[in-house]
Every structure is written in C-alpha cells, then in structure tokens.
Design goal:
The complex is a heterodimer of chains A (275) and B (366). Chain A has 275 residues and is an all-alpha fold. Chain A has 2 domains: 38 residues; 197 residues, MetI-like fold. In chain A, 78% of the residues lie in helices and 0% in strands. Chain A starts with a helix and ends in an 8-residue tail after the last helix. The N terminus and C terminus of chain A are likely disordered. Chain B is an alpha+beta fold and 366 residues long. Chain B is built from 9 helices and 20 strands. In chain B, the strands form 4 sheets. A 6-stranded mixed β-sheet of chain B has the order 6-7-8-3-9-10, with helices on both faces. In chain B, strands 13-12-11-14-20 form a 5-stranded antiparallel β-sheet. In chain B, a hairpin with a 4-residue loop joins strand 12 and strand 13. Classes of the chains: A mainly alpha (275), B alpha+beta (366). Chains A and B meet through helix 8 and helix 9 of A and strand 6 and helix 2 of B.
Amino acid sequence: MSAATIRRRGSMGRGRRAARIALHAWCGLVFFFLVLPLVVVFPISFSSSAYLQFPPPGYSLRWYREFLADPNWVDAAWRSVLIGSVTAVAATILGTLLAISLVRGTYPGKGAVEQLVMAPIALPSIVYSVAAYQLFSTLHLVGSWQGVAVAHTVHALPLVVVVVGASLRTIDVSTEMAAQGLGASWFTAVRRITLPQIRPALVSAAFIAFISSFDELVIAMFLGGINLTLPKKMFDSILYEIDPTIAAVSVLQIALVVLVLVVIGRFGSGVRPTS
Amino acid sequence: MSPDGGSGSRAPILAVSHARKTYGPVVALEGVSLTVGEGEFVTLLGPSGSGKTTLLKAIAGFEEIDDGRIELAGQDITDMPPARRGIGMVFQNYALFPHLTVARNIAFPLEMRGVARAEIDRRVEEILRLVELEGYGARLPRQLSGGQQQRVALARATVFNPRLLLLDEPFSALDRKLRESMQVELRHLQQRLGLTTVFVTHDQEEALLLSDRIAVMNHGRIEQLGHPAAIYDHPASRFVAGFVGEANMLRGHVAGSRGGHAEVALDSGDRLAVDLPPAARGAGDLQLVLRPERIRWLDDAAQADNAFPAVLVEHLYLGQNSKYRVRLASGLELTLRTQGEGEPLAAGTERLVGWDARDIRGVPCS
C-alpha cells in the first residue's frame, strides 16, 4: 500500500469511526430487544414466589422441582423431543432426496413438483391442520404421537428442500460425474462425494426441522389428542393454572436449543479433511 | 498407413463408429467415426459447439449417443454405465473432491475397485512421486495451486491403469507459462505410461505440439483426421486451413499454365503460378491457402515463382517474429510473417513480395 492511500484513509477515518459507533449502538439495541424476554424469564424461573412476579422476592429451585415432579410436564417434554427428532431425521432424508431430484433431475412436471413442495409453508397452519385432521382421522392417526410426527415432517419438508437445494446448487456437479467415471455407482457417488460436500446444509436443515416441530402448537393441538406436546402443555398451563413452572420450562427449552446449536457448531461447519 | 494417417500398426483400443447425437433441433454429432490405437495420443480440435466435448463425454459414458457404436478394446461399451468402462478422465475444472485430501482423491478409484489398503497406499505414493507431488498427500485440493491441482487430477485419472485417458481442455485455466510446462509433462507421462489418450482442446498450438494425430471438428463432424504436419501443410478444407494456423485465403480459377505450373486467375485479378494436383486442374473455382510464413520479401522478381509489388499497411511486432499486412496493386491484402524481429518498416513503404508455386495449397471449394 502506498503512502498516499494511507493518508487518504487517515482523513476518512473520523467519518468512518462515527458510522461504526452508530452501527454498534444499533446492534446493541437490537440485541437488547431480543434478549429482554430472557432477562425477565430467567430470574422468574428461579423465583420463590407462587406468582409470576418481577423482580422475584426471593430465589429457589422449586419450580424446576415442580416441573420434574409432574409426570404430565416430563411426558410432554419427552414426547416433544421424540417427535422433533423423528421429524428432523425423516424430513432431512426425504427433503434431501427431493432436493436432489429438483436440482439435478430433468423430467416432465418438475416445475409443478417444485411449486407443490412449498405448499405446506404457503398454507395457513390452521388450514393445514384441519386438512390433516380430516385425513388422519380416517387413518386412525389422530391422537397418536406418530400422527403429529408425520404432519410435522410434511410441514418441515419445504424448509429442508430450500436449505439443501441451495447448497446443492453451489457444489460442482462434475465431482459427482468424476466419481462415477472413477468406478462409483450413482448411489456411492452421492453418498461419498455429494453429501459430504453439503454436510453443513444437512445439519442446518435437520436442526431447522427439529425446531419447527419442537416449537409447533397448532398442528399438535389438532392431532395430539391427549398426547400433549410441550408447546400444547405450556398453552394449557397458561390458560388454566398460571404459575412460574412455565418460566422454568421456557428456560429448559432455551437451554436445549442452545445445546443443539453448540453441537451443530462443533460438527456442522464447513468442509473438513477426512483421512 | 491409411490416408487419414490411421492408427497404423497399433492395435485399435477405441473405435467410435457413426456416432450421432442431437439436442432437440441441434445436431451435436453427425455420424462421427474415429479409431485410436494403443498408446496413441489423439486430439479433438475445434471451436466451441463443434461437438468435441460431446464426443468425449459420449466416450466417457456421460452422454448417451442416439445412434452409432463405441467399442473399447473390442468390447461394445455403447450402453455401459461410466463406472464400468475403466476410463480415466481429467475434467476442465479438474473436479477434485474438495472434502478429501489429495491422497484420498487419488485413492478413490482404487477403493472403488476393492484394492487392498496397503496396495492403495503404495500406489498413491508411487503416482505422487511420478507427478512430483511427494509430501502433498495430506493436503486439501484448495490448498494447492492450479498446476498442482491439475497434476492431482491427472494422477487420479491414471492411478488405476485405465484402458483410456480422456482430457477435456485441462490446461485452459492455467497461465501461458504453466500451460507450456504442463503440456510437456503430460506428453512425457503419457509416453512413459504408454497411455492411450483422447485430448480435447480449442487451442491449435497445443494440438500441434502434443498429438500423434489430430481430428479437426466442426459442426459435429470430423473435417480432417491426420498427423499434425499433414493437417497444417495439407488442410482438407477451408475451415481446417483457417482454424489451424493462420492462412491467407484466396479464390480463383485455373486460367492456363505457366512454366510447368498451373496458372490461376484470382478473383482480385492477380495471376499466380500454383502447383496443383492433376485432378484439380480441370476444376472450376478454386480455394487456395497461402501460409503467412511462406511469403518473403524479395529484392528481385526472379527470386520467386510469384512476385508482386506491395505497399505495407501495418507492421505488428510479436517478439519472436513479425507480422506484416501488405496490399497488392490489385487491392488484395495479404498477411506475411517473418522470423526474428524483422525490419522496422513504416506504413506506406513499397516492397516486392513473393512465394513459390509449391508454397500454395488448394482446398475443396465450399
């Protein structure tokens, strides 16, 4: 870099610095706005009071004990983790196959399939839920956790297709061809060459599918019956018996999501050498 | 030897016959036939859209041909999936697996063939030494330079002793200096391993340098197939003459004879002494090819069979040689090339230019 450009940078410095401070301030505000609920929820979950009171009069773990002691809460939590996990696995596998077909395939009606895949997102949840209820009642799936998992899987498919499809478009198709030329079947080429290259997208897609299910209320309300999921149980709890257990549950829910995010950060990042 | 300079005494490894491929209304291959002998280096040379890459992909198995037949070592492979053809291919962008190390990239075809681990390690080491990348086995492709990636691609395509090696414009992404050294390396490797090779390029210099034979392609056909010298000195068509090397294209008809040569009257009005094969003498219109390096500056009209006063239009200095554009009295413009830096002539200078009757070639009119 020449001396002239350094000098020019120096004279521009002051204006830039002001812009940076403004940017930092704005980011701080947005961040504060986003974490504000946590600032309230966190202390309340450790409250000693029997009411939702802020700031709490004293601190205790009684609401966590309450949560763990109540089989209704624990069952709902496990059920949601189970449904979320099944949804994540099923939606990622099916969505990835669909994405491969949409990105790589050439067949009549591909455009229509591409539009149709997005339908679960475009449809209002309530309409989707009513339709699913109608269909599942004839299949005797209403009231079972499996029914909710199936409906959640279909609902998560477009998210997976979008994330995986975008990633698939960025990788070089000739690597898949090269693998086949070097002796791999198409299936082997996809498994050993294509999928490892889009691994970060697969991990993200599975996470998004899990969250979309774990956090979902409307479908679970229609299809869950007596098998309450965590969001449904929280909803009921707010309606009928409001106490700080709900805050404790929220904190646990947040903790679980953060844990999943950390695991993804560890295993889902970029291309890594394997030797 | 056959007239096309065929695979000669070598046993044919690859035989493509009457290959045809269309994409909707576009004809990519129009009944192409080609045989490649064992250990031979054949180049498919042509402009983009000439069908050379389609032909290469059809041989590799990535494109299905609509009609025709492809044989490899006597076996019909027309409908065989690429994985079973046992052909090594180097892609234009190398197509290295970005998530695998150099060693794992090269090991891939061996793993697919169920070769034992110890044997794989030994062969990967051996080929890394051969392409001068010892010690690079643990790196990722993106940590290598373009030339090094190129050599990994070459190693991966040859490590399993393929029956045939295909290369799709492998040097087009490299700068000129690197390209030249890689060309020489490829030729040495190919000869050392005795690899039967089909090479695709649009670079005529590269084709002339590397090939045992060149197939010049245009509009989905092979316009001419032959040794590099035959392609350059005896182009079979106007297209070949123009695409391989530079050429002054002249049109005319036979108007008589002069000193044992045919006399041709050009459309420009100039009259030339030309050595024509007897078959061409009676013909009507003629297409003539005059290479720029065949034209010389003359001091005296008696020094050449054809001599014309000319005016210099332009002088281009190109380092190792010089290019001049001159205009004859008839208005005909010719390009002339000399070795060395040439005389610095000013535009408008009048000089005598000329060439001999044997320096000019006739090609079929089209």
